[in-house]
Amino acid sequence: MTVESIEAVLDEEARRRLQTLAYEISEQGALRSPPWRRVFTTVRRHVFLPRYLQDEQPGSIPPRWRLVEGANPDDHDEWLTSVYSDTTLIVDLKGQPIPPERGGGSHPIVTSSSTMPSLMMRMLEDLDIQDGHRVLEIGTGTGYNAALLCERLGDTHVTSIDIDPELVAAATRRLAAHGYRPHLVAADGIAGLSDHAPYDRIIATCSVERIPYAWIAQTRPCGRIMVNLRGPLMRSALALLTVHPDGTASGPLLSEGAIFMPLRHDPSAPYDYTVRITRPATDPTNGVTTLDPASLHHHAAWGFFAQTCLADAAFRLVTADDDETRLGTEIATPDHSWAIIWHDRRDGCYPTSQAGPRRLVELLERAHRHWSALNEPRWDSFAVAVTPTGQWVSYRHPDNTSLRWELPLPAPVP
């Protein structure tokens, strides 16, 4: 077979698989409107994913990554099935240095992926994009989402930015192969892109602890911004903000959960997930709590609420100095308060140690009682408000009382 005939066969197979996938995610309620269904069944995802990385042993340390390539005959069927399934696929890794005291070398960290199609389409549908809208995408990645936007709006209405020049170059080539030529820029997305502002819609395929005000300033009044908002426990939720004429923005957290990689500022390095905590040289107070620390990590709604109430806290998992199998959750705040809740239950309680001016175990227990008294709300019971000088997450109680927590300041940008 010639190259052209092979591509024709692949294109026909892709069309068939796209129709099947479109039906599947339509049944989920992610793909709802005829314009987006036409777009989804037109753009060939395999053009933007010629290869991906498969973790052979999820959860293993270090991960066992295997490259799956469409051009490799041994991988072809697996590749095509994965590309046209409702799956997030990993496309890029960067090495995070390991400290010498822990053996040195580097640890591979995921820095780019192609989001599962149902989530991507749900976000685009919820943004209510209309003909003639100008859209800024934060996080070009493979270029697939930019292609969807180009097919819907036309090249001149789409701008996309990514921190990684190599990803932008590859996306440019793949978009051109599909006939799309949007405005692509390799730069830090935290500043948006004022050259093509104002935008009617901004969509961020990365997560932030605090919404960059530049995004608000570059959006037209009544425009919308879709962003993944995360906290210090890495619990996150999609926020859909509407920009108001006075330069503020507000909107709900959506019911569908999402986890995106954090916005990066260094193209050569992954996001540093390391949580650095310095304990003051003070003898801790030992005690117990009935609060299961594992629930912070495994119960999404409670974890989201806890990180909202203790917005200035850092959380991390630790092991005991004398027993690497003994797991604990450590919490610390900038005033040098810290606490550890050990995960091994004893007589219905969990051992604790804490020191510093704030009693963090008690604050966490109080937050849990508060969450329980509110009938254990999910993140979609909350809303976000942004002004030029502040940002808040708020909750409206059925008795019409309003609760509000200020978002933390972002970490300094190197």
Q: How does the SSE layout of this entry go?
A:
Layout: H1 3-27, H2 34-40, E1 51-55, E2 65-69, H3 76-83, E3 89-97, E4 106-114, H4 117-126, E5 135-138, H5 144-153, E6 158-162, H6 165-177, E7 183-186, E8 199-208, H7 213-217, E9 219-230, E10 236-243, E11 249-252, E12 285-289, H8 294-298, H9 300-309, E13 314-320, E14 323-332, E15 338-342, E16 350-355, H10 360-373, E17 382-386, E18 391-396, E19 402-406
Parallel strand pairs: 5-6, 5-8, 6-7, 8-9
Antiparallel strand pairs: 1-2, 3-4, 9-10, 10-11, 11-17, 12-16, 13-14, 14-15, 15-16, 17-18, 18-19
Helix pairs in contact: 2-5, 9-10
Question: Could you characterize what this model shows?
Answer:
It is a single chain. Helix 2 packs across helix 5 and helix 9 (300-309) packs across helix 10 (360-373). The longest helix has 25 residues, at 3-27. The model is unreliable at 1-6 and 409-414 (pLDDT under 50). The protein is of the alpha+beta class and 414 residues long. It has 2 domains: 3-93 and 112-252, Rossmann fold (3-Layer(aba) Sandwich), CATH 3.40.50; 285-373, TATA-Binding Protein. The protein has a 10-stranded mixed sheet, sandwiched between helices. The protein has a 5-stranded antiparallel sheet with strand order 12-16-15-14-13, with helices on one face. The radius of gyration is 23 Å and the shape is globular. A hairpin with a 2-residue loop joins strand 13 and strand 14 (323-332). Helix content is 26%, strand content 30%.
